[in-house]
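W.,

You were right to be curious about this one. When I first looked at the sequence I had no strong expectations either way, so I just let the prediction run and decided to look at it fresh. Below is the sequence, 1272 residues in total, followed by the output.
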Amino acid sequence: MRLFVFFSLIISSFNIQAQFLEYNIDWNGNTQYELEQKKVSVPQVKNFNTNYSFNQSYFLVKQWKDNQIIDVNSVRLVRAEFSEININNFSGLEKIKFPNKIEFQLNTSISKNELFSFLEINPIIFEDGIYKKLDKILIEYEFLKNRNNPKSLIEPSVMKSGQWYRFYVENTGIHKIDKDFLEDLGINTNNLDPRKVKIYGHGGEMLPMLNSVEFPIDPIENSVKFVGQNEDVFNDDDYLLFYGKGPGEFNSENNTNLNLFEDKASYFLSISGSNGQRVSEFIEPNNSELIIDYYTNYQFHEIDEYNLAQIGRRWFGDRFDFENTKTFEFNLENLLLDQPINFKIYAAATSEIPTNMSVTVNNSEIANLYFGSIGEPILATGSSFQSNINSQSENIDVVLNYNNSGNPSSSAYLDYISLKGSSALSFNGSQLIFYNDDLETEAEVVTYQISNSENINSIWKISDISNISEININSFSGFNASFNPNNKFIAFNNDNLFEPTIEDQFEVENQNLKEDIFLNESGLVETPNYIIICNSEMIYQAERLAQINREKNNLNVKVVNIEKIYNEFSSGNQDISAIRNFVRYVYNNQNNNQDFKYLCLFGDASFDYKDRIPSNTNIIPSWNSLNSFSLSSSYISDDFFGMMDVNEGSMSNFNKLDIAVGRILADDNERARDLVDKIEKYYSEDSYGDWRNKIMVISDDVDEPWENIIQSTSNSIADIIEENKPFFNTRKILSDAFQQETSSGGERYPEVKNQIINGIKKGALVVNYFGHGGEDGIARERLFDKIDAAELVNPNRLNCFVSVTCEFTKFDNPNRQTAGEFLYWNKRGGAIALITTTRQIFVSVGVEFNLTLEDYLFSLNSNNYTSMAEALRLTKIDPAISNSDQRRLVFFIGDPAMKLSIPEPEIKITRINDIPVQDFNSSLRGLDLINIKGEIQNENGSPIESYQGELTATIFDKEIERSTLGNDGTTDSNGNPIILNFNTLGEILFRGKSSVSNGSFEFSFVVPKDVGMEVDSGKFSFYSKESSSLADNNGYNKSILIGGINENAEEDNIGPEIDLFMNDESFISGGITNENPNLIVKLFDENGINTSSGVGHDIIATLDNDDANSFRLNEYYQANIDDYKNGTINYPLDNLSPGIHNLRLKAWDVYNNSSETEIDFLVFDQDQDIVIENLLNYPNPFISYTEFWFNHNSSAPLNVTIQIFTIAGRLVKSINGITQSDSGSNFSRDFSWDGRDDFGDKVAKGVYIYKITVRSETLNKQVSKTEKLVIL
C-alpha cells in the first residue's frame, strides 16, 4: 500500500486535504472454501483478505486502524487497471453475477470509539462479454473535519401522563372516531373536552434500519380534525377525523410492500390537559407556473405465506406446482395510456433442476424468469424482472406460467407484482391519495387540477402527519401549492371513511422509559451497565437475572418490558429497529462511553415475526437477512442491536459491534425459570471445584484431505491455552486418534462419544468442538447428538460450549429444535452458555474465528478476563475476523455479563519431602512416598495467612506422545496417510484433597509403580476454595521431574479394600434404585490406589458381566482429604433398564495388587408402581428414639404417612412428611419417633404395629407396608 498525504505548510487537524490510496492487487492462485457438503475455489490475493458468499459475491477487504473518520462523500475512483481472468478456473465464481464496472466502498468502521479505515472492493467485472480482474486501483478521499456524536436529549415521554388507549388501523386513508368508538375504549364521554383528545402514531411503515436516518423516538402526534357543533363538548353526532396509515407501503430497504412485523398499525388515543394538534387551514400561494392533472398510481399484489427455506426475512405467497398458471388482475383507474408503466415482479423456486416462468401482460409475453437449481447450501433461487411497459387499457392482466421442466417436485412462489403508472387526477368517489414521485420541475408553485370533483368533501395535505392542512374547496376547480417532490394529498368523501379497530387490553399505562432508564433505585441519574429486554410474561425471571448480576458482578442492571420499547419508540408496533433505537438512545446519552456494556435479549426468536407458523417462538425478535435462500449467507443476527454508530445499521461488512449482546433462549416462563436457575447455580457454592481448571477440545476426523486443518486447529487451540494459561488442564479428544467402528448406521466412534459425555459430566470450564456439524449434533459419525445433550447430568459443572460448526444452534426455526438448544435447555446440566453458529460456516472462517476467539475468551496475554459475550464481541471486531460477514452467524447464547469461573492465582509448592522446591533436584520415582507442602499466595508472593479452606491436587505423569490413526485412509497430495502427531496430558498419578490452614497446605502420596520410567517434567495442578467465602484459587508446577522406580520400597502384596453402594452409603446389596443411580465406591489401601493407567491396571466396572462394554473409572477417583490411603469414586449410571442388575468392580493399589467385589441392585421403572422394601425401625427395641428406614424406587420426593397402633388396633401416633431427594438416594431415614403419642404423652412399654404409606404425587400412586416395633 502507498499512502499519499497532501497538506499545506501549516499542519492542523482541520486542514488535512486529499488522501490517496494506491494498491497493486497481488493475485496468487486460488484458495478453497469448504462447507458441510460443498467445496469451491476462488482467487487468492496476497495483500487483501477475502469476503466470499457462496455463489453470490466475492470481495476483497482491507482495514487498518486510523484516528480520523473518512468523509464518504469525498471518496472517488481516480484510476483502475484491469486484465482478463478465466473464471472457469474458479468453481466458486461461476454463478456470481459480476457488475460491468468496478464497485468499492471506503469508509470508517467504528467500535467504541476505536476507528478502522475499511476498504471493500468487488475486483472482478464483466465488460463487453469478458471477465476482467482488477490489477491496480487509486482512490482519493478526505477525512471529516468535525466528528459529530449525535445525542438525543434526555426528556420525558409524552406517555408519562394522561390517559392512553390503543387502537389499530388496517387501511391507509381518513379514519373516523365517533362517540361510540370512544366509549368502546372505556372513555367516559360525559364532559369530555374534544380539544384534549390527541392521536399518536406513525402508522404501518417500518422504521428505517440505518442509524443515519433520523426518526422520532417518541410517539408522533397526528393532526386531527374535530367535526361538531361546539368545540369544547363531544355531542352524540360529533366525531374526529385523522389520516391513518396501514401496513401496506413499499419499503425499498426490505424490498416488500407489506410490513414485516405487523398486519395492522398501532395508534394511541390520549386525553390530557393540553390541547391536541389539529388540522390547520392550508394557505394557497399565488402565481402558479405549472398545472398538474395526473398522479402516480401504484398498485401491487403481495401475500406473505411461505418462507421457502425457513430463514431470512423474505416471504412468498402464491404457489405454483400442479396449478402452474395463475392470473392477476389490476385496474389502474384513469390510466394515461400514452405513459409507460413501471412493472416489477419478484419470484423464487425450489427445484433440483433449472426451471422458468413466463410473464405475460395483456396477452403479450414480456419476460421469462429463470430459476437455477438448488443444492446445499442453496435451498431456493430467485429471479426478478423490472421494466417499463405500455398498456392500451387501464385493466391489466398478468399471467404467470411456471414450467417445472418435467420435475413434479418443483415449485415456484410469487413474491410480489407491482405496477406504477400515471393516472388522470380524477376523483374516484371515496378516497384518493395523490402524489407525483417522478415529477421534476423548476416551478416553485403548481396547480393541482382534479376532475370529477363535485363529490369531494375535503382535501388534506398529508405530507407531514403532524402538520396536516385542509384545502378550501369552495367553488373548487383546483388549488395551488408550493412544489415539493414529497407533496402528498388526499381527497375524500365523508360517506366513505375508514373505521379503526379495537382489541383487548386497549388501556395503556403511563410510562416514561426515556427518563426512567437513567434513574437508579435512589432516583439519581446513573447510566445502566446492563439492559435486559423481556416480555411481560418473563419479567419476574428477568428481574431474577438482573439481581444476580447486581450482587455477583456489581452491575447497574435495568429490566425493560419490550412492549414499553415498542410503545415509545415505534408507537406500539413490533419493529426490530425500535429495539435498536432504544439501545442506541441509552448508548448515546451515557455519561461515559464505557458504562453501557451488556445487552440481554431475554427470550427466544423465530424467522416468523407474525406467528404464521404453529408453536412460534417470536418472543424477542432478531434481525434476519434479506437474503433468504442460503444456509451460509442468509443469517439471523443479534449484532444489529449492538451497532451504535451513525454510519451503521445496514449490517454491511464494515459495521462493528459496540455492545456485548447475549440471548436467553426461553420460549416460555417455565423455560426462563429453569435457565435462570442454572445461572444461579453457576455462581453457587455447590458449583465450585477443580473442574474449573479443565478445558476440553474436541475435533472431527479426516474424511477428506483438506479436513486435516480441522484437527490441527483443535490441537493448536489446546496447545495455545496450555502454553499461555498453564494452570488449565486441557484434554484433547481428537476423534481420529480413536478406533473407528462400523455400524448399521455408518462409521462411529463409541469411545469418543463416551469421553465427551463423561468429560462433560465430570466438568470442564469450556468445551470446544471444531468440525462438521448440524442441527442434530456434531460430526457425521454422531460424536454427540441432541439426545446426548438432553440427557446429560452435570448440574453443578456447567460449561461454556464453543461450537464454530454448521447450524449447531439454528434456534430460529421453532419447528426443529437443535442439539445446541437441548444442551442449553438441559435442566440437569448441559451448558451455561453457548458460543455457537446458526448457519453453515466456511471451514477457513471457522479456523480463524476459533483461534482469535481463544485469545479473548482466555485473555491469553493478561489476567484481566472479560465476559464471554464481550470476548465474542472483541473477536468479531478483530481485523482477522471482521473482513468476513459470516461472523454474524456466531451467537452468544446466555447471560452476556457472565465471565468464565476462572479461579484466581496463585497456589505454589514450597517444599518436597521437606526440601525447598527450588533445591529439589531428584525425580519422583515409582513407589516413593512423597510429601508436598505449599501455600496460597497473594500477588506479592506471600502466603495469605487468613486463608482457611480445602485444596484439590492432581499430579500428572509426563506428557504422552500420540498420533492420529488415519481411520478413513485419507492421504495428502503425495499419497501419504494424513497423520497428526500431538501431545496430551500424562496419566493421573494422584488426585486428592488437603486442608488449607493459615494459607498453607500439606499432603502425601505414594507414586504408583506404573509411572513412566523415563525421567521428565510432570505437572502438578492445584485448586482451592476458601471456607469462609466464595473465593477460589488455582496454581500449577511443571518443573518437577517424574520417572524411575524406587527399588528399595517396602513390600506390599495386599490388594485394596472395596465397598460398593448405590446412591448413598446406607445401600444394601440387592436393594432398590431408580433408573439413573449413582455408583459410590469406597476404596482403602495402605499405599493408595493406582489411577495411572498401567497396562491392565485400570479401575474397571463391569455391568451385568458385559466385559466388552465395561467402563474405566480412574478419573473419577479422588483421595479423601488429608488421607491418601482412603478415597471415593462417584460415577453416575444412566438409563438402566428395569430389573435385577449386577455390577463388578476391580481396582489396583499403587503396587499393582488388585481386588475385586460386586453388588446387586434392583432397578424399578419409575413410571410404574411405587415400591418400598427393607422396611425397619432402628434401634428396635428402643426407649425414647427410633428411626424408620426403607428403600424406594422414586427419584422424586414422596409423601409419607406413618401410623402407629396398639396390638388392639388403637391409633396412638401419626407422623407425616416428605422424603428428601437432594442426594438422589433411594434410601430414606427421614422419619423418627420419640415414643410419645399425638398428645405428647409417653406410651406404655410393649409391642406396637406401625403402618407406613408412601404416595407419589407425580404418578398418583401409593403403597403401604406394616411392621412391628418394641418400646422398652
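Here's what jumped out at me. DSSP finds twelve helices and 84 strands in the chain. And, maybe more interesting for your project: The chain has a mean pLDDT of 93.

Coffee later to discuss?

I.
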